Amino acid sequence: MAEELPAQDLDQARRTSMAAERTWLAWWRSALAASVGALGVGRLAPEVLDVAPWPYVLLGCAYAALSIGLLVIGAMRQKDLETALRTGKHTPLTFRTVAVFSGGGIVLAALTVVLVIAQI
Fold first, then answer.
1. Distance separating alpha carbons of residues 60 and 66, to the nearest angstrom
2. What percent of the chain has pLDDT over 90?
3. Nearest to residue 25, comparing CAs of 96, 95, 78?
4. What is the pTM (predicted TM-score) of this model?
5. Could you tell me the residue range of the domain that residue 43 belongs to?
6. Could you give the C-alpha distances from 89 to 38, 84, 85, 107, 116, in angstroms and in order?
7. Does this UniProt record's set of keywords contain Membrane (predicted)?
8. 116 closest CA partner among 41, 44, 33, 32
């Protein structure tokens, strides 16, 4: 028979689990925003601006790749946090992950600015 946690420990475990779930949902929100960006840049912008679509389609695909990456890493992060909760270990987000997403975001933003300026 499994030993029950004291009320205070159970409450702490629940709060920690819910915080991990909120973090996972934040990854999802970010992925949805990137998906909207993909549609806006890749599909709508060329029609609205009446320009050659290929650079916008490529940039839209890059935003879609960001969305997929956010969903994958978010799911992996959720699994890691739940495992950490069960084992009592601390599992911080690696700097490599932060650097990859930050660098990718910078590149996407810069390319978007370049396309916007090119249309002036």
1. 10
2. 62
3. 78
4. 0.84
5. 10-16+26-118
6. 37, 5, 7, 34, 46
7. yes
8. 41
DSSP per-residue string spanning 7-51: HHHHHHHHHHHHHHHHHHHHHHHHHHHHHHHHHIIIIIHHHHHT-
pLDDT tens digits, one per residue of 30-67: 999 999 999 999 999 999 988 899 999 999 999 999 99
Of 76-80, 82-86, 101-105, 112-116, minimum mean pLDDT range: 82-86
Residue at 5 is within a domain? no
In a domain, 21, yes or no: no
Q: Is residue 88 part of a domain?
A: yes
User: Which amino acid is residue 28, in one-letter code?
Assistant: W
* Domain assignment present for 1: no
Q: Which two tokens stand for residue 40?
A: 């806006």
